[in-house]
Amino acid sequence: MAVAGVMLVSTAIVFVVVYVNTGTQVQRQIESDVTGDTVQLARALGVLHDPTPATVVATASGYVSAQSYDASSTLFFVLVPGDPIISNQPQIFGRRRRRGETAARRILETRQLAELQRPRLGYATRQIPDVGPVRTLERTVQAGSVHVVVGAGEPLAAVTRAKDGVARAFVLAGALSLVLALIVSYFAGARVTAPLRRMAAVAARVDAGDLQPRMDLSPKTGEEVRVLADAFNRMLDRLSEAFTGQREFVADASHELRTPLTVIRGQLELLASNQDPGREEIARVEGLVLAEVTRVSRLVDDLLLLAQAEHRDFLREEAIELDGFVADLWDGLSLTADRRFELGPVPPGTLRADPDRLAQVLRNLGRNAVEHSAEGRGLVRLEVESPGAGWVRFSVIDNGPGIPEAQRAAVFERFHRIDSDPAHPRSRASGGAGLGLAIVRAIVEAHGGRVRARGRDGAAGARVELELPGYS
Q1: Full-model pTM
Q2: With contact defined as beta carbons under 8 Å apart, do 52 and 144 qualify?
Q3: Beta bridge mates, 379
Q4: Helices (H) and strands (E) in the chain, counts
Q5: 326-341, pLDDT tens digit by residue?
Q6: Residue 102: which H helix or E strand, with range?
Q7: What span, in angstroms and rounded, lies between the C-alpha atoms of 347 and 313?
Q8: Among 144, 405, 428, 446, which residue is least crowded by beta carbons within 10 Å?
Q9: CB atoms < 10 A from the CB of 37, how many?
Q10: Which of 128, 188, 175 is nearest to 156 (CA)?
Q11: Measured on CA atoms in the order 297, 298, 299, 305, is the torsion positive or negative?
């Protein structure tokens, strides 16, 4: 419909311009012809040697009578004072009444004839009975002592016919063009909107919960629609991954919560089944329940932190003096376990970051290294360096069994733990919920940084690196 509307408006504008211009051009041609005829008539009277009213009338009558007249030819007339109008069509000026004419018609024609007999110098459009509008030009001629008015006129029927022809041509051409435009726009629109309709169908299936369908386009599809379809498919891929991750997350969280709750319930049922439990039994159940409650509380805290990491107000950044901050944190961590804690050189400068969240990241990595290294001889080392302008890198290194290369990217996923080897020290046997490194990644990415796991260069163990911007 929009195409039809544009076509109609455009055609109407062109029609008005051509219609008016055609009428103007034809009328100018008529005026040019009338001007030439009037000039010739005036010259014929102006060259008289001894003009008298009688000679003027005779000359005018001879000249005018020589000009034939019909409904489409030139009308000549001369107004001589005291004499009837001289014309090549005297019936116009002395028109007799016709039988069957109404009184109103006779009055109108009488008024028109009276108007014709009054001089109107210059160009004018006169209404002549049975002829219609006539474009006239009247001039005064001084023939001796005789003052006469000469004039010529041509019917404007040619203007009307020209305009009517333009109107018919435009109606026909406009109708054909409109029909053709509607047909072409329909097929073009159908071709363009076909992939969009398929996309809408896919979106409807997605809205119903099916994330499997994708947009399949033919090679002839336009580049714009192809780009849109590719973006749509990528969005569905991300949605599918997000929903899958969400389902896995809920399942893993449910499993992690179910296990301690099952232990607590079992111990309480066991205690309740004993009618006279001893102090030692009560203390044993109390210790197990408190341990599981602590585990649940820690898991809930970790889940809340991961949820808060997506909020804008998660971080409270400030300028941190790097050397003092790192030294104090590592000294405190070295008191928590019997390991070989080492701290490499720390470059001077300040880091724009949240000190509490950064400390949490480094403690998580330190505790993770402690858990996966041997007591007494296990290495837990922190190295700090600047890999480039405005960046600082923290590397936590241990000499444990390391992380398999295939799982180094996955260890930062929620609830991910290495289960390929049940005897592996980094497996579920360690008792963690698998959220420590996920929390590390969430905090680092909230700072605009990046984190990765690597193997220890030339030796067994793991190396976790995180890089943060804002260093100066």
Answers
A1: 0.49
A2: yes
A3: 340
A4: 10, 12
A5: 999 999 988 888 999 9
A6: none
A7: 29
A8: 405
A9: 20
A10: 128
A11: positive
